[in-house]
Amino acid sequence: MAAETGTPTTLTLKSNDDELFSVAESAAILSVTIRNMVEDGCAGGVIPLDNVDGKTLASVITYMNGISAIPADEEKKKSYRDKFLSDKDFETLADMVLAANYLNMSCLMDAVSAKIAQVMEKKSVGWVRRKFGIENDYTPEEEAAVKEEHKWTFEGVETDDDN
Amino acid sequence: MAAKHPKRSTSFLPLEIIETILLNLPVESLLRFKTVSKSWNTMISDPAFVENQLHRSKTSSSRNLLLGELGFSHYNSEDYSLVKIDKDRKLQTLQLSEYPPGSNVVLSYCDGVLLLTNDRQTCMDFVLWNPSTGTHATFQFPYEVNPRSQKIYGLCHDPRTGGFKVVVVVCLKYYTVYSCKNNSWTRKKEFGDTSFLVVYDPHIFVDGVFYLLLMDPGIYLITYFDPVDDEFKILRKPEIVVDHLWIYMADLKGRLCVYCNANDGRGNAIRIWIKGEGVGNNYWEELITIENVPTYIWFFKPLCFVENKILIQLYSRRLVLYNPSEKTFEKFDIERYTICQYFPYLDSLIDPGSFFPAQEKEEVVIEKLISCS
After folding, report:
1. Which residue of A has its CA nearest to B21?
2. How far does the CA of residue B238 sit from the closest CA of chain A (Å)?
3. Which of B11, B26, B32 sits opposite A133 (nearest CB)?
């Protein structure tokens, strides 16, 4: 538990590629996973986060610091989240959604999921398969039948840019 | 870990994370992505996913979809348009949906499903239609009714009882309930010797029940139809609303609201109360007082919240956004066309046909006949 010394407690987080990060405890406990570790007294040394790489963890910590600096104002928090995610590409967002899920950060999880949905909303089926790494397990006949059933939803789809 | 590979795909996203992402998508995209793979199709078609998607649309902070008949000056088309409204007062047409053949009178709506008929006078044939998925189901009214009788139609979708129920109130004699699940109508239920009048049409569907405003000489009653026992029940009004005051109902934020003139010296002000969530909850709190209302209350209809603003229909065709911090009404730039008959709309995957008892497809029956012979 945080000692009542007046100086903010700092935690050290370690990514799965062995990068170390310092972060204020007050910001880091936005992650329920980290908060539980702190409460269980495991935060004395270094907190290993086996499912998050250094690049993603750096980004998540930027978010933790940014959002915890905003006072309780849901509108401002929302616009911070929008701005934070605005320039992220699909691969980064996919890494972030995994990290947010592992770290149990519901606000980040919701925001990244919504952002990914916004990116894929007008995309083609082929784009989604490539980006999510999904194998088409339909036979050509089956695929044509499913497509035929919802033919009109294929109008107005963006041409693939694969960005 | 996969993260150490320089080149990798994101196929490791577990299905439950994919589900969380997909729940943010509009129905049109979800239907298209059924083609991605068999497992995506199974997930999107799963009744639990359909319910989750519906719940999400309902609780979203901006339920900014309207379904309307699009008209170009004096010409009204045969189609419905799904229109999205953003807080910058832009209207974006998302989708045009054709009516199921022959049925173009909207009687009622709830959870993204419309109750239609072919003829408002006779109303013998009904269609349940989801414009987002284009699916529909049909059924018939079994009783003879005097075409001149006032009829009120209610539609409710209740996850507790499973499926849709259609209520037909033949004023002021009886009502009868059609359960899609059982594919049958109840016997006529008499109202007894009450002398109330229905003063609000259509009803408001929230909390899994629908609310009707009735007038028992001089006194307004908020009643609701409870699909659990097919009975009409009375709801307590906000205490401050005195009996003789004209009240109106609306669905804002997925909760029942009532509104009336403020009558407190603030000129044209309308006060709105909002009821606690859930059918058994009769706790009312004041939501907002709308000031500087440019018209009478009967030409004023709040439709939905668009972020922190309220979309209001003035007269019958004008849309404005009320800005609570400025207390002003912002106009829309929609001179190019008008939309008549607006419905605050929910985008849902519900297939009305799925709530009817499963019927053997003709081919299956034929196959069985062949195998028997």
Report:
1. A113
2. 29
3. B11
Residue B74 has a pLDDT of 42
Co-location of B235 and B347 in the same domain = yes
Chain B residues closer than 8 Å to A152 by CB = 134
Rama region for A7: left / alpha / beta (φ>0; ψ in -120 to 50; rest): beta
Domain that holds residue B93: 61-355
CB contact under 8 A, A143 and B10: no
- Put simply, whether B23 touches A (Cβ < 8 Å) is yes
Q: Is the pLDDT of residue A152 over 80?
A: yes
Burial of residue A15, with CB atoms counted within 10 A of its CB: 0-12 exposed, 13-18 middle, 19 or more buried: buried
User: A2-120 belongs to which CATH class?
Assistant: alpha beta
- Cβ pair A128:B4 closer than 8 A: no
Q: What is the pLDDT of residue A2?
A: 46
Per CB-CB distance under 8 Å, the chain A contacts of B9 are: 132-133
Choose between B219 and A55: higher pLDDT.
A55
**Coil, helix or strand at residue B305:** strand
DSSP conformational letter for B191: -
ipTM over 0.95: no
| Residue in the block written with tokens 């006072």 | A71
- Counting one residue from chain A and one from chain B, the pairs whose CB atoms sit within 8 A come to 97
Q: Are residues B33 and B95 in the same domain?
A: no
* pTM summary value: 0.82
Q: How far is CA A7 from CA A2, A4, A26, A47, B156, in A?
A: 10, 8, 12, 20, 58
User: In chain A, what's the furthest Cα-to-Cα distance?
Assistant: 69
Q: How confident is the model at residue B275 (pLDDT cuts 50, 70, 90)?
A: very high
H helix or E strand, kind and range, residue B340: strand B338-345
